[in-house]
């Protein structure tokens, strides 16, 4: 089974002990916006750099 980008990011966050709330703060976006991106698996190349 192939992992989605959202699943891969969640695994990395868990390994680094970083919450989605902390990641959203670091990215300068709302927690709700980031949660929606995970839900829809909607990440742009720019966001992933």
UniProtKB/TrEMBL annotation:
It comes from the Bacteria. InterPro entries: Lambda_DNA-bd_dom_sf (IPR010982). One of its GO terms (molecular function) is DNA binding. This is Uncharacterized protein. It comes from Maledivibacter halophilus.
């Amino acid at each position: 089974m192939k992992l989605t980008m959202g699943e891969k990011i969640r695994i990395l966050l868990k390994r680094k002990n970083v919450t989605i709330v902390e990641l959203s703060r670091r990215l300068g976006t709302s927690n709700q916006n980031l949660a929606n991106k995970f839900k829809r698996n909607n990440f742009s190349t720019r966001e992933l750099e």
